[in-house]
Every structure is written in structure tokens, then in C-alpha cells.
Specification:
With 387 residues, the chain is α/β, with parallel strands linked by helices. 41% of the residues lie in helices and 16% in strands. It has three domains: 145 residues, Rossmann fold, CATH 3.40.50.720; 161 residues, no CATH class; 70 residues, Rna Polymerase Sigma Factor, Chain: A (Orthogonal Bundle), CATH 1.10.1740. The protein is globular, with a radius of gyration of 21 Å. The model has no long low-confidence stretch (mean pLDDT 95).
Amino acid sequence: MKKKIAILGSTSSIGKCLLNIIKKDKKNFKIELLTANTNYKDLIAQALKFNVKNIIITDLNCYKKTKILCKNKKINIFQNFESLKRILPKKVDYVMSAISGIGGLLPTYKIINRTKIIAIANKEAIVCGWPLIKKELKKNKTKFIPVDSEHFSIFSLLNDTNKNDVEKIFITASGGPFINLPKNQFKKIKLIDALKHPNWSMGKKITIDSATLMNKVFEVIEAKNIFDIGYDKISILTHPKSYVHTIIKFKNGLSKFLIHEPDMTIPIYNSIYFEKNKNIESSPLDFNILNNLNLQKVEKNKFPLVNILDKLPKYSSLFETVLITINDYLVYKFLDRKIDFHNLTKLINKISNLKEFQKYKKIKPKNIKQIYNLRDYVHLKLNALGI
């Protein structure tokens, strides 16, 4: 029997990667739903190529264009996620949530009750809305698989292991393009330099987050949430080759680390074949890298944003939404050349430390509407600051 799946954000790099995996094994999969925000041309092409009967395109103008282009095609077109029960009357076997940004939180939450397994690549859903996601997973008995390479690695190593046996988890960071750049040269960094990631091929936004190490701040928050392990047990190590993805030290004296090439195909592939452990073509072990792993503690004077982790509350709070929103806002200002790289990190620290925003550390998220309202409020405040 074919495995029924749905992909949220199928035109993203994660979505396209998953479709490439499915293309090589089409006899074993049936795609029930694909979604996108504005990339309607790619979405239509994907639907036709994989014979998908249901698509969601959330941008209103793009939805209208899609309706016109698909007039004589047997595709059901929807503009939001309110019709999920109609689109997926029975639980599918697997969902990939690959929508980027905080806008992916609501669709991710809504589709949990329509699937047996959900693989989540949407960082913001886990950082901002984990208590809500976790409750919904438990309520619907839906299995969760993290897709970020670091979290999939931890997930794999901790499978059938008691979290109380863990002494320390180390998450690795490439250090981005500036790992070897002296701190006194940071004021000279140009946008074109920040977009040159040495190992990963990613979108512009996450490439900048990698350059500032803000992505690792969010990944530590994700790890704390997913594995219910305190911040004091999670550390970041720089590792320029991106070959080691996590190291776990156990209380019994043993340590484990997981390695694979810096290619998202590997965690994505293993998430969809998780229960089968299907073979994948991969390169031989690179002993040149293994003999020169170069794992180091983060230079906090060069990457000061990692200090944010020392001030976060132990429990999930609305401050994570504030932090995501401030970072998104300022990164796009940098991408638009409105601020420079040096000021990007300074402003993230300065604005997130404002009393007006710090108070949200004491408030736990109750629902998704509350999270989205706070995001909009923070946007208004940032606009008022005139940055």
C-alpha cells in the first residue's frame, strides 16, 4: 500500500528535497496535498508532475492566478488551511512541515490531527509554539520527528534512551563565513560576504542567521523544548566542516556523536523512511575530516548573540516570539542594506533587552492567536523606532 503524505511548503528547499526523494520511489508514495504561499507556478508544476489533486496557495493574488491557470485541470485549489478535514478526511501517514517563518506555526498546528507522523522543519513553530504543538501531538497520538540536522541527530542518538541519563548535549555550528575573521574586521563585513556560507546551500535569511550564530540560539531553544532538557545541559561548539552534528555525553561515561555530510537530504530521507531504515547512497567516511574535526567553544566576543541563551527563562515563554520577530525584522533590514552587519547584532541585543519586551519572559503562550498578535505588536514597535 502506498504511503500517503502531505507537504506544507513544498516549493521551499526542504520541500523540493523531499520531492526529489519521492521521485525516485514514486511507487511507494501518494501525495495528497502540496502547499505554498506565493510560488504558485512551481506549486502547479509539482502538482501536475506528481499527480496531486489538492493544493493550498495562501497568498490571495496568487490563489486567483492559480485558479485561472488550473481552470481545465483536475486540481482542487484552496486558499487557507480551514479545509484540511475535507482535503484529508482520513489521517495521512506522513506530513512534512517545511514552511519557513512564524507563519508556518498555524498550518503546522492545524495539520497535526490529520497525520500519523509529522516531520517539522519549521524552526519558529518549535521555538514559539512548542507547548501548543506538544499538547496537540499528545492529544492526537501523532508521532513527531525533528528535521533540522542537529535535532534529527539528537533524536536518533536518544531513541529509546532515558533523558535523565544525559549529562551534556553539544550542538555544532559551522561558524558561518566569519569563523576565522578577526573581531576587529567585523565592521567591514559586506552583505555579499555574509551570504557566502562555506558548507550549506540555504536561503538568504537563514544564511545571515548562520553568520551571526542566531540560528544556533534558536536551535538550542528547539533542543530544550523537543527533548525537555535544560539549557545548562546544552552547549554550542564551532565545527567549520559541519560533519559532526551533535555530541552527547552520558552519565555512564560513554559519549556518542553523529556524523554525516552537510546535506539536508540525509535527515529528510531518514525522516520519511524512519520506520524502514531504508538505504541511501552516500559518500564514504572522510577520514581527513575525522582526523581534523576542529571542535571549539564559541568565541562569544565575536558572536555575542549566543549570550542571549544565558538570560532565557527555563520554561517556554512569549519572549521567544519577541526574539524571533526582532531578529527577522532586523535581518531583512540588513538584506535591504538599511543597516550594516555590525549593527545587526548590536541592535538585536539592544532591542531584545528593552523592558517593554523583557516582560514577556514571564508569560507563557496560551494559543496561536496570542503569539501572532504579539508578533504584530512587536512589528509596530520596531517600525515606531524608525530603524
